[in-house]
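From the methods appendix. Each design record in this collection lists the tokenized structure first, followed by the designed amino acid sequence. Records were kept in a plain field format so they could be parsed without special tools. The example shown here is representative of the layout used throughout.

RECORD:
FOLD TOKENS (196 positions):
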């Protein structure tokens, strides 16, 4: 019989600690991204600094896209890691980048009906969901360009990330169901012995 390789011990803080860290990232990560979005000074980007605004927008999207593709590649190759957490955080970050760009463009008169950061975040989510109520309208060419970029970006990168995350989650659930089914006869045998 072939020997099973020993599983390396997890470093401190142990299994319970890592699960707590995992859930803290899953629940707290999007909250931190949202808080940073609302706390970033509005005057940092916008019509006063168009080159900085566009450069940061393009750079942020490229970095997030690259990191998303890296997580997808790692999951497809079966490399260790936590793709669900990273894909969730990167997706939230991409939404914050688009919302920030909409907010900056709105101060240049590029939007009708977009006046606050919450309006910008609302428009980002509505565009992602392809609902389009018509209460916020891109009227400038820059705004229309960013909306088209968001739609294309969502179709390519966020869809690929969501597909990878759902596939990874499905494999985790299948493994748990399989181990539960395999353990069920052992539990029944143990129960039968203890009742005798």
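DESIGN:
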């Amino acid at each position: 019989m072939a020997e099973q390789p020993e599983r390396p011990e997890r470093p401190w803080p142990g299994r319970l600690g890592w699960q707590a860290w995992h859930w803290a990232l899953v629940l707290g990560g999007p909250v931190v991204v949202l808080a940073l979005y609302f706390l970033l000074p509005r005057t940092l980007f916008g019509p006063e600094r168009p080159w900085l605004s566009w450069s940061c927008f393009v750079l942020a999207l490229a970095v997030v896209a690259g990191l998303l593709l890296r997580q997808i590649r790692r999951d497809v190759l079966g490399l260790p890691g936590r793709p669900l957490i990273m894909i969730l955080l990167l997706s939230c970050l991409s939404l914050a980048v688009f919302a920030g760009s909409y907010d900056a463009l709105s101060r240049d008169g590029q939007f009708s009906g977009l006046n606050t950061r919450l309006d910008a975040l609302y428009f980002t989510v509505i565009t992602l969901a392809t609902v389009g109520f018509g209460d916020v309208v891109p009227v400038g060419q820059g705004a229309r360009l960013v909306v088209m970029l968001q739609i294309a970006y969502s179709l390519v990168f966020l869809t690929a990330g969501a597909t990878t995350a759902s596939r990874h989650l499905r494999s985790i659930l299948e493994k748990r169901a399989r181990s539960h089914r395999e353990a069920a006869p052992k539990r029944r045998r143990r129960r039968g012995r203890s009742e005798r």
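APPENDIX NOTE: The helical segments are 14-39, 50-77, 83-106, 117-128, 141-195.
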